[in-house]
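Title: Prediction job returns without error message
Component: structure pipeline
Severity: low
Priority: P3
Assignee: unassigned

Description:
Job completed but the reporter wants confirmation the result is attached to the right record. Sequence as submitted:
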Amino acid sequence: MTSSTRSLDELIVVLKAVADEKRLSIIASLGDGERCVCELQQRLGAGQSLLSFHLRTLKEAGLVSDRREGRWIYYSLIPEALGDLEAFLRETRAGETR
């Protein structure tokens, strides 16, 4: 694993976070840019409470960040986190050992 990637323990947290259909849908929805919670609710057909739970899980895993603008909260992907996951999978496929 390269020095720019996460530790195995951190990758486990990330993998657990993405191992959910709704959270994968959130990641896909954020793939084309920042979204406010209201937009995600409409796109995903999810209630605010459930969506907040999933967003918090993704944030704690270091996959998304948020920012407040007035009364709205906007979420976006953290590209480095996805890059770390991609690097881990690429290295694993290439047969690199830890």
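Comment from assignee: result matches the submitted record. The helical segments are 8-18, 21-30, 37-44, 48-60, 79-93.
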